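Audit log entry. Action: structure prediction of a protein-small molecule complex. Ligand: pyridoxal-5'-phosphate. The ligand was supplied as SMILES and no pocket hint was given, so placement is left entirely to the predictor. Protonation state taken as written. Sequence taken verbatim from the request; no trimming, no tag removal. Recorded inputs:
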Amino acid sequence: MAEKKTTRKKARVNLDFYHSPTQLRFDTWNRLEEYTSRLAEKHMRKADVAAIKRKTREALTLLETFESYSAFPSDDDFRFLWYLFEEQDFGELARIVARIVRALTGGTYRSRHINLRLVEDGEEDHDDEYYSPDEQHLQRPYFEVLFVDESGNDEIRRLRDNLHRLRRPEDQFVYDIVVVPSFEDALIAILFNFNIQAAVIRYGFPLHSVNHLEILKRYLSKIDETAYEDALDIERGPQLGNLMAELRPELDLYLVTDTAVEDIAGNVTQKFNRIFYQQEDYLDLHLNILRGIQARFDTPFFNALRHYSRQPTGVFHAMPISRGKSVTRSHWIREMGLFYGMNIFLAETSATSGGLDSLLQPHGPIKKAQELAARAFGAKRTYWVTNGTSTANKIVVQALVKPGDIILIDRDCHKSHHYGMVLAGAQVCYLDSYPLNDYSMYGAVPLKEIKQQLLLYKKAGLLGRVKMLLLTNCTFDGVVYNVERVMEECLAIKPDLIFLWDEAWFAFAGFTPTYRRRTAMATARRLQARYRSAEYAAEYEAYRQRIAGRKDAELLDERLYPDPSRVRIRVYATQSTHKSLTSLRQGSMIHVHDQDFSHKVQEPFDEAFMTHTSTSPNYQILASLDMGRRQVELEGFEMVQKQIELAMTIRERVASHPLLSKYFSFLRPRDMIPVEFRRSGIGSYFDPKAGWDAGAMEEAWTNDEFVVDLTRLTLYVGLTGIDGDTFKNEYLMDKYGIQINKTSRNTVLFMTNIGTSRSSVAFLIEVLVKIATELEQEREDANRVERRILEKRVHSLSKDLPPLPDFSHFHAAFAQGAKRRVKTPDGDIRRAFFYAYDDENCEYLTIDEATIGAAMKGRRELVSASFVTPYPPGFPILVPGQVVSEEILSFMRALDVKEIHGYDPEIGLQLFTDEALKKLLD
Ligand SMILES: Cc1ncc(COP(=O)(O)O)c(C=O)c1O
């Protein structure tokens, strides 16, 4: 078959950004329902009938394309709709469209075959097409299997009938099939249809789709077409499998081939659960499909706990709450039982046997469940943590860092890392993030700054002691690193550098292709594979010759590549599963991709795990982590995709609403990322006139040094004259019950999550409109004096912002680096931390000019003896051993926040006395 070659060669594999085809699909069905019910009305003007018929035809045409990627309504159902339309049987058409809409919104098509032709005229419609929550719970989970096959209608019908016939009442799941005729349609299908959980790729199908619907084609424009456009017939199946695995790695893939299985390249076949040779045995396929889903559905620890809770046991052990005994026998705390229900008490136990397991030394269901989590999150190993990422971070640091090791770490990281450094006794080299003074927040650490420090340690002959780079990805405010680039260039300088990526906010990122590329685990896997390849060896050789003889200083602006013969991929990620996925509070995970783990890290890791983990870890948290993992493997793609779409909707609504945009704006890439880090040139994701710039977004996510996570929305409120904190508490919370987390002086941060719904988005917009209307009225009613006060407030919030201070430096008493020939900035934070335990080493000075100002003038250096952490920005502006700078003092004086940990304005800053410092220097 002659196939058109396109000239587009741009390499991309990013698919998330589109303006929601799923929302368009549902909205179109709703519109169609409205049109058809109007057509069914008896008395309508002729002109109106013609117009509505045209709209109906358009809606049917659009939906026909959408529905060719879904099992319900089927092709046959659609032919029936067209038939009714052409026959002008509008009453019947309206009734059937209404049934389809009910079945789609109520989800009943998932559990029973809906035969649209069976209901006779005049008969009651099936109003049971909605399920109550209890009924939904009893339904067998439903999914769809994609067949890539060019067969005709009859053959497809035969395939569907054959597979339907194999259904058994005892099957745990039920599925239907979707058949698409080409390579491109298959890619569209898996991205558009969230119900697809498995794909059977047959042979002899063409490359290109004949579907020209722009919104769906947009999916394809985001795939690197060079990856497949030259595919020959024989390679097409494996190629498709490869791409599918990259886009949705959770899918079960089956290949049916008519070439000898041995002829298919070995590395490609790994992507398939099973390869069939000219397979016609439907039962075998059917059982494989069910088994594939079962493998993801399985929740070993949740099952074990549920099973345990049903067993009759006598408790002669700790925990009177176990089995609810201390609650049900109580006269005074009975409502605890009523509130929680009995199951939680039945599942509370301190047993580690009887089918349960020990988190500290897992060998049963916890071990199995952690292995499944590793698979789901793309790690080599995964460890569950029940005290949040605060603890996960300390475990990883203790496992890898010994006293004296040098650690490069972003200064605005979470406080658990600073404490981790104290505990480990690391020599800490703080890295400054670029500041966003206009919003009182920090961005992230530029790669150049990291390279500069690494090259400095190289010059000082200390690279061997630099153990780890620790960065936060994404940051609280949603700045996302180019993880691949950071790791590649750092490994070029130090080939065995360990990376700890704090992904506390980024657990969801692994379940959508564009975000996944910027996660630690996916990048580690990709890099390890790349460095093994012959292509990379050749590329590296050419690069080595090109940069031979260059001085280190010249390498700063050069793109660096690691030596494949020396590089080791050693990557850790800590994730607060509970922050972005389903898990009870404190449920976190440590993901590991470390080539040296088993021989270098396993033992210290076990010790670190023991150090920080309770001997009574909470089973409910563990069970919820197991369930959260099942969920992401089966519906993570759908949920994250919808989350991104909803976040885009919020941005769009605010930017295009005349009143909202007068007072509010969401910070754009150009506001949060300096231009030198945006190679793509993207300034804004959305423009009210031009719409969404999907192309630029993809380019940015592929290449830019930093991008902004769309799901985190920083609303600038400076123009309202209300500061972030007041806006959060008095407006959003007290008046409208909207909870948010973080504020800065002139911003508030809204986070979407996988539970965000279209109605919660509508509510938020409604509330913002109400607030804006109120502000508008206040302004209209204000007299001259009031107006001037308001202007001053706006000015103060938008212009009078104190510059954020950089990390100053460690005092020589705590900085070994200061004594070296080549001076390095690291300091011994642990020494300073514990030195302050001795009261006589410390004094307190208030930060007013007369006290601290005078002391600064007369003395050498003032040195902090404690952490000082204002909220916001929420990270220490002073750490033990750090010299107090003028910039830090000015910042503190200008701060109007109420909460500063480690500092009492009446007592002042805790500082080391001159004598105490002198003692250390002597
Ligand atoms: C970047 C970062 N890391 C770690 C943590 C701690 O996570 P957890 O609350 O799970 O202990 C947080 C909490 O906000 C955080 O923002």
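Audit: result stored. The pocket of pyridoxal-5'-phosphate is lined by residues 388-390, 414, 416, 472, 476, 502, 504, 576, 588 (CB under 6 Å). The radius of gyration is 31 Å.
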